[in-house]
Q: What sequence folds into this?
């Protein structure tokens, strides 16, 4: 090989090396730019939201207490308290015992299907029917394949 062809081969190799380095630099820059843009997208708020500061004035929905009357109407408050007492008195000891039994059964088997619960434990003030335990609230499975 002559000196000229050897110099051309070195120059060609050098250009290819420069092209590879440039290509690797572009790939690395694209990777880091993509990572940066993803991180920035996670940190920005979606359209319609705005940043707030604790020193900003409260929005209208947070000022509901400003519109409440300064004092309660004693008659309305008394009526409310009496209604709560009546509702609490409807949950008698028998209902509480049944609620506890059903709670314990569901703790043992969370997938228990209580298909007849409204028949054996109706809401107050309905009278309670006969109770033979949690089994009376569970609908028996057919003899077919279990589901």
A:
């Amino acid at each position: 090989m002559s000196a000229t062809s050897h110099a051309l081969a070195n120059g060609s190799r050098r250009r290819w090396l420069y092209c590879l380095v440039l290509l690797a630099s572009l790939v690395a820059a694209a990777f880091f730019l993509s990572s940066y843009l993803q991180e920035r997208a996670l940190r920005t708020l979606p359209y319609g939201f705005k940043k707030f500061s604790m020193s900003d004035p409260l929005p209208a929905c947070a000022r509901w207490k400003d519109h409440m009357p300064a004092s309660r109407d004693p008659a309305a408050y008394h009526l409310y308290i009496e209604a709560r007492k009546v509702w609490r008195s409807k949950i008698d000891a028998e209902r509480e015992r049944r609620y506890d039994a059903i709670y314990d059964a569901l703790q043992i088997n969370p997938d228990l299907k209580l298909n007849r619960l409204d028949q054996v434990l109706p809401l107050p003030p309905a009278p309670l029917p006969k109770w033979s335990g949690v089994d009376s609230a569970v609908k028996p499975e057919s003899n077919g394949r279990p589901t």
Observations:
- The CA atoms of residues 52 and 59 lie 11 Å apart.
- Helices lie at 3-43, 74-90, 93-108, 117-120.
- The two ends are 84 Å apart (CA to CA).
- The longest helix spans residues 3-43.
